Task: structure prediction
Amino acid sequence: MSRYTPLPPAGTRRALALLPLLSTIALAAACTTTDDPPGSAPPTTAPTTASASAPPTDPPSPSASTRVTIPTSAFVELPAELRKSPRRTTPVADALPTLCGNEFGTGGRQVTASAAMTVTYQTAGAPDGNVPQGMIHQTIFTFDGAGASAYLDRLRTAVQACPSYDQAGNRVTVKSEVLPGVGGEALLLTRTWPETSLNGERTGDTASSQIAVARVDSTVTVFNDQGWEGTSGNPAILDRVVRDGVRAIDAWQR
Result:
C-alpha cells in the first residue's frame, strides 16, 4: 500500500491556512473589554463647590463668572469710644435676622459670596465695667447681574407679608420704611415688642430694635441690631454704623 496521502483540494488548503490567523484575531478580540484596567480609579463626577459662608438655603451661583472674596476691610469697625470689643467673624446663618421666616436668606442662586461679622457696642463714655449696650451683626452678599436689586425686591415683598410675628411668647410688630441717602437703595425695619425684666416679667413698657438693608451696586449688606440681653437697640448708633458700613463697601469696590 502506498504511504502517500493525497493533498486536499486547493480551496480546502486555503481555508485551513486561514485558521491560525482567525484564531489569533478571535483571541485578541476576547482580551479586549470595556472594564477599567486593574488599579485604575472608577470614573468620578467633578465635585460641586459652594462658599463656606453662603446663605443657609441659597448656594452661590454655579454660573458665576468671577469668584469673589469679601475682605475684612469691607466691614464696618466702630470708633474707639463706641467699641466694647473688636469686630469678629460670625456665621452668616447666625448673623441674619428672622421675622416670620427666612426673609433675609433669600439671596437666590445669583449670590457669588457672603460673609458676616459682629461688632459689640457701648454708649460713648460708658465705664469699662458696664455691660455692652448691644451688638450689630453685619452680613455682606455679592451678586451676579441684577441679583442685588432682586434681593431687595423679594425682601420688601416678604416684609409686607409679615406685619407681626411671635417670639418667645411676645408679639413683635414690624414697621418698614425707606432709609434715604444710603447706598443705591436702603430699607429700615423697626421691631417692637413688650419689654420684660430679667425675670421675664412684663414691665408695661416696650422695647425695640432695628434692621437696615442697603444696596451698593451689586452688593447688599444687612445690619441686625440686637440690644443686650433682649433690651432695646440704639437707633443712633445703628444709623452711624450703616452709613459708615456703606462707605466701607464703596471703598472696597473702587
